[in-house]
Structure formats: C-alpha cells, structure tokens
Design goal:
Shape of chain A: elongated
Shape of chain B: globular
CATH topology of the largest domain in chain A: Beta Polymerase, domain 2
CATH architecture of the largest domain in chain A: 2-Layer Sandwich
Radius of gyration of chain B: 19 Å
Largest sheet of chain B: none
Strand content of chain A: 5-15%
Largest interface: A-B, 27 and 22 residues
CATH superfamily of the largest domain in chain A: Glutamyl-tRNA reductase, N-terminal domain
Number of strands of chain A: 10
Strand content of chain B: under 5%
Order of helices and strands of chain A: EHHEEHHEHHHHEHEHEHEHEEHHHH
Helix content of chain B: over 70%
Strand order of the largest sheet of chain A: 7-6-5-8-9-10
Distance between the termini of chain B: 24 Å
CATH class of the largest domain in chain A: Alpha Beta
Helix content of chain A: 55-70%
Radius of gyration of chain A: 33 Å
Oligomer: heterodimer
Distance between the termini of chain A: 21 Å
Number of helices of chain B: 8
Chain lengths: ~425, ~270
Amino acid sequence: MKIIVIGLNHKTADVDVREKLAFNGPKLEEGLLKIRELPGVSEAIVLSTCNRVEIYVSSKHPDTTYETIKGFLSQFHGLDSAALERSLYFYKDRDAVKHSFRVASSLDSMVVGEPQILGQLKDAFEFALGKKTTSILLNRLMKKTISVAKRVRTDTRIAENAVSISFAAVELARKIFTDFSEKSFMLLGAGEMAELAAKHMMSFGVKSVTVANRTYERGCDLAKEFNGQAIKFEDFLREMVHSDIIICSTGAPSYVLHKEEMQRVMKERKQKPVFIIDISVPRNVDPEINHLANVYLYDVDDLQGVVDTNVMERQKEARKAEEIIEEEIDSFEKWLASLDSVPTVIALRSMAENIKKEELERLMNKLPELGEKERKAIEHMASAITNKLIHPPTVALKEDAEDRDALIATIKKLYALNGDDQEDHG
Amino acid sequence: MAVLLFELSLTFYFAATIVSIIELFRGSKATSRLILIFAVVGFLFHTATIVIRYVVAGHLPIVSLHEASSFYTWCIVLIFFYLEYRYRLDLLGPFTMPVVFIFMLSSSIFPREIRELSPVLQSYWLGIHTFLAFLGDAAFAMAFGIGMMYLIQEHHLKSKHLGGLFQRLPNLQILDEVNYRLITLGFPLLTLAIITGAIWAESAWGSYWRWDPKEVWSLITWFIYALVLHARLTAGWRGRKAAVLSIVGFLSVIFTFFGVNLLLKGLHAFV
C-alpha cells in the first residue's frame, strides 16, 4: 500500500482553476465519498482551501490511481482534463510524505509560516475521520504530519515575525509598550490603509480611540466603527498629549506634524513614549521627529523594510524546518517499512528453518546408525512438515488484502517474531 | 569545606555565563531554563559558603575584599531571582550572569583567610549597615543590566535595524519600569546605609562624618541616584536618559566599592 498526494496550489494553478476545483460546502462530502469509492483507492482525505486543493490517498497502484483520480476530478468539476493536467502535481511514497509535512508546516504556503494551514489540514482530516474514509495508513500519516508541524512551529522561529505592514506596526508597538489596554490610540486622517492598520491594532485592545479627520463627518463614521470619539482636525495636537500610538495618513501634500510641535507635545506629556506610524505618501510627519527622545516614528518604507527583513528571517528558519522534516520522514519511513510483509515472511521462514535444523541435528546425533537413505527420507519429511505449516500464513501475508497491516502485526505476535522496531505507536 | 563550596559556586556561575553567551546567539527555552538552573545551584553553594564563614567568624562575612565581593555577588543573584520571579524578562539572565561571574571571580582573586575583626568594629551595626549598603548596590547593579538592555532595544527601534536581539529583548516600557523600580528600591537602602553608617561611626570613632573617601564616594553615588529620581519625577527623564544615568550611577557604585579600597586609603580600608 502506498501513500499518494494529488493536487494543485497557488504556485501551479491560477485562481480561476483553483476556484473550479475547490470542494466547497456539500461538494466536499460528496467528492470525498466518491473518491473513496474509486477503484484502487483504499483511503482518502480531501483538503480544500483557497490556495490549494489536495487529495491524499492510499492505494496499491499509485500510477493507475493517479489517472483514475485525475479523470474523476475533471468529470466531477467539469474541467478540461488537459488543462487540469498542467496544474496538477502528483507525489508518491517518500515524496508524498514530505509534501504532507511541508504543507502542514506552512513551508509550501504563499506566506511561508502562516498558521492557518495546519488548522485547515486538521479539519480535513477530522472530516475524513468522521466519514470513515481513512484507515491505518492515512491516520498515521496525518497524526505524524500534525506533530511534525507543531515541532517545526516550536523548534524554529518560522511564524514569529510579522510579514505584512499592518502586523509589522503591531509588532513594533509591542516592543515599545507592555500593555495596550492602557494605551490611547489616535487615527490622524482616515485613509484605507490607516483603517486596516487601526483594525489590527484594535484587535489587541486599546484603552481609547480618537479619530481626527479633515472632513469631520467621515471621522465620525470611522470613530463609530471603532467605538471611539471624533475630534476636529485642528485639535489633533492637543489630543496628541494623551495619545500613545498614532497612525497618520491624511493625504496632505506636506508635513502636518513638525518637530517643534512634537517637542512641545512631548514636554507636555512628560516624555511618555509615543509610537507614530506615518503611512501617508508623501509623508505627513517630519522624519526629524524620530530623533526626539521617546518618539518612535516609522513611515511606509521603514515598515516595508521590517517586513522584508522578516521575510528573509523566515526563509532562514524555513531551511531549519526542512532539516527537521527530513529527519521526521526517516522516522515515518521506518514505520512504513515495518508494515511491509516481505520481512515478516522472511522472518517466519527462517524461524521454521531454524527449528527444523535443530530438531534434525538432535535426532541424527541420537541415531548415528541410520543409513544415507533413511537420513534423506527423514530430512525430506521434516521439510515437508515445516513448509506445509508456514504455507497458509505466507500466502495470507502476500495476499495484499485490505487488513494486511493488522495481519502482519498478528502474525508477528503469534510467532514471536521480534522483527524490526515497533517504534512510537502514538 | 567553605573553599570547596566557593569553587563549586564559582563553577556554576561560570557555566551559567557560558550558557548565557550561547543564549545571546542561539537562544531557546532550554538555554534560558539552563541559565536559571545553574544560577540556582550556584546560589545554593554560595549561600552555604557564606553561612559557614558566618558561623566560623561570628559576624557577617564582609570584612575582607574577598568576603565583600562574594557577599555583594550573592545580593545581586538574590535580586536577579526576584526579578525573574516577578517579571520574567527575556534575556535577563544573559545580561546578569556575566556580571555575577566577574564579581565572583574578582572575589576569588583576593586573599581568603578569615580575619580578626578589630574591637572598634565589633557591633551589630556591622551587619545592618553593610547588608543595607550591599543590597542597595545590588539593586543598582541590576538596574545597570536592565539599562543596558533598554539602550540596546532602544537603538534597534530608533535605527530601525530589527535583527539581532530585537525579537527577544523585552519591550521598552517594561525595561524602563523595572529600571525605575530597582532605583526606587536601591535609593532608600543606600540612604539608610549612609545613615546607619553615620550612627555606627559616631559610636565607634566618635564622629558622624569624617570625609573618608568611601563616605565621599557613597555620597556622590547617592546624589547621582537622587538626580535620576528627581529628574524623572519633575522633568520626565525616563527611557534613554534614565537608562544612561543608571549606568553612570553603577560605575560610581563600582568605584566606591573597589576603586576606593584599591586606590585610596581610608577608614573603610577593610571593605
């Protein structure tokens, strides 16, 4: 039995192909059950997210099963099979295991290190469990995959640094302030970017929100949305005395906040630290302000710089993650190998041979007077008995039946064949 | 026995320092835990050393440079544990243990014999005065470490180079708060130490204040920290300025501690 993965993702397929192939809502259950019923498919899991559609299957004949599933996909989703072929990837054995580990660890994601994919994979697995479309092999693969992804998360810093501008702003704020819930937040101007950054900031819970916008009405609307208060734009300097985090994007053609003004503000607030995020282009805050004590000013380029460093940082961590994954594949492969029937057949046969040899020797020692002919006859009989005794279990092992994995375990136990490791059955 | 325990303690502080350096370059939960474990074990041996010397000498072992720097180190580690317990600041260990190790090492260099205490000094004021002074100075030592952390983190944020230790250093606000806390702890202790010292001096030598170099330098230190607190409360000297001042203050502490003894001679010559 082999593990295979068939699928496509944001790298291999455009969004319109991904859309068509998605297993949404009721389609998921229908598709999953139908795939499970396809000839040659023993187990199935369907993972469908906006960036990827993947089908995890165990099958005896990977290549023909791939063709079968490909045919099914094009028919089920009404897609031209040639177009589908171009977008699909197909992994088997070790590659399939590796792919599964990499996907869950978010190494294959559009934003490397994003955390959602693991949850999505867990959901897909649980759904398949609920529909009973999986068994020993995929269950084991999924459990291992989840634990590998967790190990990658804890052993590397792959998910630690923000890789979007608004998250970078939040990350910086958290290195300046301890507790957002005692901080006041001001929006200066009400651009779209500012709104987005504000939303991220708000999700960490600030004490109060103030909006100062040139058009007062628009400011009021936004303030309502954030449960804050609106003030007249002209009053923003006075309000800054009480604001700890300021996001500025007024769309003004020049600076609206100058160094001298900020100096006065800082004096009035007794030098309590301020974090100013100027996401307007052209800039609205005099960059000189960053040189004032306890003022931290970041503009769009600065934030982009932070994001770029973080992306690089993640790539470095991704390399560590790949090493972890290689290690884990080895341990998974060992377990897979222990499922294989060949070593068990060999072990069974050699056990029988050993018993035969021992008993024959003992008998010959006791009866040295036997002639060549008698000896041959006795040896022949012994071989016949052992062969006949181990014949049925050997055939059963080689049969490649659905429950073979359980059978192997049983035979090993019955005949006390302490073959290779039974490691971590977790 | 005391010698062996002292060496063991020094060894564990050394191990904690080595792990601290590793932590700075390749930190993980394991390394920071290891630092704490080594520090705790070192501290236990250290405590035993001090207790044994106390029993043998019959007074707090702080009457030679060896004993004084050993006891000072002990006070620093004590405050380090308090901060770990209370605030759990990332990377505090790496900014503390090297200092601890250096003080312990300097203690190991000085002659270790237990000295007779001159009769004028045999008083319960010895324990009270020195314990207050050492604990206060230990708080200033930790404020120094925290101040360094603040300056590094502040530099990252201002220069917008967010590599290095940026991710793992604590945020500026908490560093500033803890720095302030430590100075508000150290300052009254230093004040009390100066007062009890004066009272003791009066009973031992007949005058409260004799402009002995140690007294003068303690006073200078006292003024520096008084300035830190005053400027913070009135002019909002927080953050960077407070961090710099806490570093300057600590240099003064160090000079009062070692410099005065090694370079200038005075009544405090033994300590």
